[in-house]
Amino acid sequence: MTKAAHIAYWMDAAAQNWQEVGAMFAAGTYVPCLFWAHLTIEKLAKALWVQDNPGDTPPFTHNIARLLWPTTVVLTPAQATFVQQLNTF
């Protein structure tokens, strides 16, 4: 699989998860919604990791901050706080 295909895999998976987030939010199931939102952002972070690193396999972690650390993304203090809070889920 090419690097572009790996990135597309993570982006497509995130898009599918985001649809689930919308459905759960509309149904008022907020705790599962938050969990799936975390998975969506995690998959986007994995796509960024693959984009910005030589390898095609991101670290086996759910920690969004760890995934974003070796990328070109620079979080604002508010975004960093949000990521840390989201990691608790």
Strand-helix topology:
Layout: H1 3-27, H2 30-52, H3 64-68, H4 77-87
Task: Give a written overview of the molecule.
This protein has 89 residues and is mostly helical. It has one domain (3-87). It has four helices and no strands. Helix 1 (3-27) packs antiparallel against helix 2 (30-52). It is globular.
Unreliable stretches (pLDDT < 50, length at least 5) are: none
Describe the main β-sheet briefly. none
Q: What is the CA–CA distance across the termini?
A: 31 Å
Compressed to H and E, one letter per element, the order equals HHHH
What is the general shape?
globular
Percent of residues in helices: over 70%
% residues in beta strands:
under 5%
Note the main attributes of this structure.
about 90 residues; mainly alpha; 4 helices; globular
In summary, what is this structure?
This protein has 89 residues and is mostly helical. The protein has one domain. The protein is built from four helices and no strands.
